[in-house]
Amino acid sequence: MTNSLRPNGDRRAPLPPAQSSADGVPSPRSPQSPQKKQNGKQRDAFFDNAKYLAIVLVAMGHAWEPLKGDSRILEAAYQVVYAFHMPAFIIISGYFSRSFDMRPDRLKRLITGVAVPYIIFETAYPLFKRWIDNDPHQDISLLDPWYLTWFLCALFIWRMTTPIWKMARWPLPLALGLAMLATVSPEIGDDLDLQRVLQFLPFFVLGLVMKPEHFHMVRRRSVRIASVPVFAAALAFSWWAVPRMNTAWFYHRDSAQELGAPWWTGPVMVLAMFGCSLVLTACFFAWVPRRHMWFTALGAGTLYGYLLHGFLVKAGDYQGWFEPTWMHQPLGEIAVTVAAAAVVTVLCTKPVQRVFRFAMEPKMAWAFKRDAAELARERQSAERSERDREREREKVNA
């Protein structure tokens, strides 16, 4: 129907519909994945499942850290998990950032969903350490991300640069080049954890350039079957490499010189680890369920689990929870693993989200001016509702 046929002579072109999601961009839709509506938005079960399973691996890896020194097998598993769990999470973050632009509503969502939680938790973590570790000298610095907050800082920078990557002709090679240069530049320092921002950047850019069909490719039966020997080979290689390789390479937070290696090993390790991480991430995605599972809804709360579980891990570290001898036995390591998975699962649930939403997803309407497009949409909606009511009254009178 053309505008000329609209009642009341309304000839204005309709405004584009408002879009909102947990990360400020529309949720991607996969034709092969069942869809669930949550808060009026379409969600893809595959991505929610992947985010939940990735955050469980993050929590398990952090729980293994105080124990891995006594077990070569656990150290090998730790290295394999660290090779792909954050890359998988970052690729998904990049994929969901494909439509990000400088539109006011998306910038507001970036501030309230990333920048504000960064400020809150970058303040809360040092205060927590002062209290539980009796350390009055622990400083609060918004320029030096503490423990888990580096990801929020990195995500803010990556997303703000998204329009640039979308303009670039060869974004992924350019991102890899920046990561390689970062590993030979110890002068970068610790401000905003720029080493991690740059060294993990290729995974975010990869997510930006990926399409739904790329995820369909890794979810084929043949890839699932091949992923089993690939993971077995990765574990075997990692077991061999434990005494021969510095685990700090997997953290991507230091230059080659800071790790005591020749400068040229930095670019080589960037390419080698990018390739290994990409293969293991593809194997991980191959085994992520595509259908709605009991934990699918928890995928919407992974940021809660990520930021909150750090308090428990650090409390255990400061209070000596990991020191009992039995925890360093195989059964103790299994118990710690199960406990970490259970705790982070609870932290992703709706009740926890309701309690901590003030810090993770604050509305902050008081801080922003109303967007003109949003006001116009509301005005058009009100006019449309009034016209509908007028038609109903005319039908009744007729």
From TrEMBL:
InterPro entries, sorted: Acyl_transf_3_dom, Nod_factor_acetyltransferase
Pfam families: Acyl_transf_3
Keywords, alphabetical: Membrane, Transmembrane, Transmembrane helix
Keyword Acetylation: no
Transmembrane segments: 45-64, 76-97, 109-128, 140-158, 222-242, 262-287, 294-311, 331-349
Region (Disordered) location: 1-42, 378-398
Biased composition (Low complexity): 26-37
Domain Acyltransferase residue range list: 45-348
Entry's Gene Ontology molecular function annotations: acyltransferase activity, transferring groups other than amino-acyl groups
Protein name, UniProt field: Acyltransferase 3 domain-containing protein
Organism: Streptomyces swartbergensis
Lineage: Bacteria, Bacillati, Actinomycetota, Actinomycetes, Kitasatosporales
